[in-house]
Amino acid sequence: MTSPTTGAFSRIGSLDLIRGAVMILMALDHVRVYSGLPAGGPTPGIFFTRWVTHFCAPAFVFLAGTSAFLYGRKHTGLSKYLLTRGAWLVLLELTFLHVAWTFNIDFAWQMAGVIWVIGWCMILLAGLVKLPLAAIATFGLVIIAGHNLLDSSVREIIPALDENRLGWLWKVFYVGFFAGPIQLGDSGRSLIVLYSLVPWVGVMAAGYAFGRIMTLAPEQRRRICLGLGLGATGLFLVLRGFDIYGDPRPWNTAGSGSAAPMPGWLAFLNTTKYPASFSFLLMTLGPTIAMIPLLNGARGPMARWIALFGRVPLFYYMLHIPLVHTLALVVSWIRLGEISPWLFANHPMGNPPAPDGYTWGLPLLYLVWALAIAILFFACRWFANLKDRRRSWWSSYL
């Protein structure tokens, strides 16, 4: 979601395009959160409204690693920059973004989301960049491909985690959201880790090593990106198709673990995001990598419009959460004659109370999403122009 640099090196247009495209999709999912529609079902329309946004987090984390590599080629002090940048992101997640999501200042209950995990992965990457590039690539690929080997053994110890003094480490590093909140001492406060560090630190490390590919000649880069991307997509189809390995939920059983049964072709795509399975990452990163060389020649107003968002990723993210939340307040007031108290809940990730008639339909969801993107375009264009005119140390942190 954030790239460690903001134009200090010669930008690669296809990376900005991909970042911009997935950021637009990300806003769709966050509008869905406030619409009250469930994640992933039960109709194909709702399922794919959620499914297309699965490409966002993998692309953000992977390309953050790539940007770190490209930044390090032009600047000294990469480790220090990653440390300070990562700490800043973690702080933002637990302060500003908590208030933006909830519109309240009750910090008894917090969510460690994608900005949190990008921050911690940058902090860990600050140490990893001291290793040879081949070692970083190997580390990333082993984490991505191998972490599901622990699924069965880790699931067995989950019930005992809250009684173990180090149980919180398992939640931060691996099981996260699946294992329930971390109780922060006797303070009564709790933290739900939506994004555990594994496998995301592996995704960022692989993205860092991928940065070397982005420095190759265009034709060589094209061949490698297409080979990697299409190969990963093909591997997903094989592993998922035969339920060989890569996801704790087999798709060929009724409902694939969901609350209600879904058709097999939807269950096939219903891979596990929390924590992200190997199948989930193959399904999302494969097409993303394959698209990079295909977008190199993209021109025209639409391409420039999408790439604009990719140039100011953190500014976009910080702005879009309170904007979408505010639009949801307006929709509630227009439709219900009042603002639903659920919109100030801690944390508005579940379904709203059934009797209040709050939940939107898909047409309204897409209309609010389009309005949010239009507003964000003008705000991001202003900020991008400001950064181009006035380069300063603080602008690199937005």
Instruction: Give the beta-strand count.
Output: 3
Q: What global shape is seen?
A: globular
- Please state how the strands of the largest beta sheet are arranged side by side: 1-3-2
What is the N-to-C succession of helices and strands?
HHHHHEHHHHEEHHHHHHH
Report the radius of gyration as a whole number of Å: 21 Å
Protein structure class: mainly alpha
Count of separate structural domains: 1
Q: Stretches where pLDDT falls below 50 for ≥5 residues?
A: 1-10, 254-259
CA(first)-CA(last) distance: 11 Å
The proportion of residues in beta strands is under 5%
Describe this structure in words.
The protein is mainly α and 398 residues long. The chain has helices spanning 13-35, 44-51, 56-74, 78-94, 96-102, 114-128, 133-146, 151-157, 167-175, 197-213, 218-241, 264-269, 278-294, 301-311, 313-336, 362-389; strands at 109-112, 182-183, 190-193. Strands 1-3-2 form a 3-stranded mixed sheet. Helix 14 (301-311) packs across helix 16 (362-389) and helix 15 (313-336) runs antiparallel to helix 16. The radius of gyration is 21 Å and the shape is globular. Residues 1-10 and 254-259 have low confidence and may be disordered.
